[in-house]
Amino acid sequence: KVLQLTLAVIKPDAVAHPLMLEALHQRILDNSFVIVRCKDLVWRRQDSERFYAEHSGRFFYQRLVEFMSSGPMRAYVLAREDAIRHWRDLMGPTKVFRARHTSPASIRAQFGLTDTRNTTHGSDSVESAEREIRFFFPEFYVEDWMKKEEPLFRA
Ligand code: DAT
Ligand code: MG
Asked: Which UniProt keywords apply (predicted)?
């Protein structure tokens, strides 16, 4: 099976609650992801604007940008087979109300507060995973990792 990398983020609403942060971290480990990198960070407003540029103009954009730069978050590079889809499935739908109805066991159903304060982020394609990993971990080189570190997981 081919290992895939994805970017996962625990957003400020969830990091603010130590038990929620712990539960989400545990959820990652319980679902066969390997934590390749992990860091805590705080965004400036312009980081938020840049990361979510595709949503500029949407009615929730200001709210989103403010929220994402409101306090510490935790970012992960996660590896497993089909990591992008598995992490998206685990998070559940963007909108909390829908998540509670269609995927009651998902992270957003269980921990999400509103459609904006929805606890986690996950890349949605191979292209966005590459871009987003670079955005959060500019010092992380996928090719180096594939050569030097990925073989260690197979050993
Ligand atoms: P996702 O985070 O599931 O990839 P997205 O890329 O469509 O969803 O939107 C990015 C974030 O913007 C989302 O996590 C929360 C916020 N958002 C999206 N749609 C929203 C809405 N209808 N109302 C409020 N916030 C929203
Ligand atoms: Mg998205």
From this structure: ATP-binding, Cell cycle, Cytoplasm, Kinase, Magnesium, Metal-binding, Nucleotide metabolism, Nucleotide-binding, Nucleus, Transferase
